[in-house]
Amino acid sequence: MSTIVTRMGDAASVEMTPDELRRDVIEGSEAAAAKGKIPVLEEREVEYLVDMFTCPSRIWGVTRGHEGILTKDGSTNTVCSSRLSSGVCAPLNREAAVRLFETAFAFDTMEVGHTDYSVKPSKFIASLEQEHMELLQHVTILPLFYGFMPNLGLYYQPDGPFPNPSDLLPKGRIEEARAAQEEALEACCEDIVWLSQQMVDVAADGVNFDTVASTGDADFLAALKACEEVTTTTGLPVEIGMAAEMVLGFHGELEYDGVRLAGLWPHQQLKLVEKAGAAIFGPVVNTNTRKSCAWNVARAVTFVKAVTAAATIPIHPNVGLGVGGVPMFEVAPADMVSRASAALIEIGGADGL
Amino acid sequence: MGTGDPSGMGMAHALASSMGGIKTTGDLVARMQLKKMRLPEAKRYVADKLGVSILDLSDATVMRTLREELDIGVVTAVPGVAKGLEAKARIADLLDIRINCVERMKRKIGASLG
User: Fold this and answer.
1) What is the mean pLDDT of residues A67-93?
2) How many domains does chain B have?
3) B46 — contact with chain A (CB < 8 Å)?
4) Listed range (A260-264, A348-352, B8-12) with the worst mean pLDDT
């Protein structure tokens, strides 16, 4: 076999030789190690990835007995929503879709969530969300989360009441931008705690704070503070899933438990998530569309391995479009999704996805 | 998991690496992860409670029969087998855990179940 048909990070097919694939696996791991100051993959782990990517089979999977747990973000959007969630807009309501995920798709867990999926709009329809959770708890067996994003960006003008740091920062008004973020994160934190508390009343099994830190370090701090409050006052399990691999420092000076949040990598984020009381952590490793999937999966697995090596709670890496070694394209190719999926568990040591 | 079309993303992950939900014991192991148990510990806990091996936990052939015997809900539509909240009340007993909706049901009907 001279070449293997594999894919790039944008999902386009590409032919590579086994030597080229091996080189990309090694370089992908080295790229993660350099960024995160973490160990590269061991030789046997490189071999696993090379074998996986040189195998011509369409689908790859974990060894029997090594299966992990799936937790889901975005609720039923993939079935009920439009292309903004790669959704197929099936003529089903949310309750029917959740039951399909339990039975037809055999998911381990599922979640209820508003189509917009941000905490700010969700709080206005909390009673509807509660009703769906309440009814679904009667008819389903699998653990049911309520999921939403902090999405701090919605708290800034013109969508929200606080001055927009994106307007202030280019003008050099740094202190005003920081003050706006500090005020906004408190409002966001209050909303996260309030909406989580509504789910306690209707017996949710947990809440999923998803796409955390999408608006940088202030977004991350809002989620951590809310997680601490929810877990200590209600006992409700919290899953925290990140938005990107590194926390962007839009504020730059915010700290949690004495640790500066800006610039933290997944294994460093983990320790704060654990400190905040979360039950499950979902680290993100971004996909580089200009590199091969072999390079991207090796890079993702290297980052995740550093997280799982230090974790005391279950780790469910994000593996949606453009993260966790999964290509960035509206419709995902199962050949690469299944490889990223298996590698994160077999080599990354993930407890689920 | 993450965003993606149902067959390319959800189904691909489910087939490649997932325990299989109520088709096997994915729901039970997931409940122990909510108690902050890592995967090996959660699987060991559930396997011990069910009296099966770790390999059996994700074996649909074994678990389809055992779940019906334990009356904790099955993936196919079988009349008479515990559904929804009934199944979760039995799972709470089996795993010796508290499940929020089961506790709420007890409060609502003013009874002490199990």
Assistant:
1) 91
2) 1
3) no
4) B8-12
Select the residue of A323, A334, A345 nearest B8 (Cβ to Cβ).
A334
- Residue B41 covered by a domain: yes
Is residue A135, in this structure, part of any structural domain at all? Answer: yes
Measured between beta carbons, the chain A residues lying within 8 angstroms of B1 are: 70-73, 316, 318-320, 353
- String of b and e for A285-298 (b: at least 16 CB within 10 Å)? bbbbeebbbbbbbb
The 3-state DSSP class for residue A212 equals: strand
For residue A244, give every residue at least 6 positions away whose Cβ sits within 8 Å of its Cβ, in sequence order, or none: A213, A214, A284, A286
Q: Which of A61, A66, A25, A31 is nearest to A44 (CA)?
A: A25
CATH of the domain at A151: 3.20.20
Q: Do A107 and B19 touch (CB under 8 A)?
A: no
What value does the mean pLDDT of chain A take?
Answer: 97
| Per-residue confidence (pLDDT) for residue A319, from 0 to 100 | 96
Would residue A353 count as lying in a domain? no
8 A C-beta contact, residue A314 and residue B38 = yes
Burial of A338 (0-12, 13-18, 19+ CB in 10 A): buried
Residue A95 included in any domain: yes
- At A166 the pLDDT is 96
- Give yes or no for A270 touching B (CB within 8 A): no
Query: Where in the sequence is the domain holding A108, given as residue range(s)?
Result: 4-346
Buried b (16+ CB within 10 A) or exposed e, A13-48: eeebeeebbbbbbbebbbbbbeebebebbeeebbeb
This model of the complex carries an ipTM of: 0.96
Give the confidence band of B113 by pLDDT, cuts at 50, 70, 90: low
**Phi-psi map region of A86: left, alpha, beta (phi>0 left; psi -120 to 50 alpha):** left
Spell out the residues 6+ positions from residue B75 whose beta carbon is closer than 8 angstroms to its own: A103, A106, B21, B22, B23, B64
In a domain, B6, yes or no: no
CA distance B113 to chain A (A): 16
Domain residues for the domain of B65 are: 21-109
Three-state DSSP class for residue A247? coil
Number of domains in chain A: 1
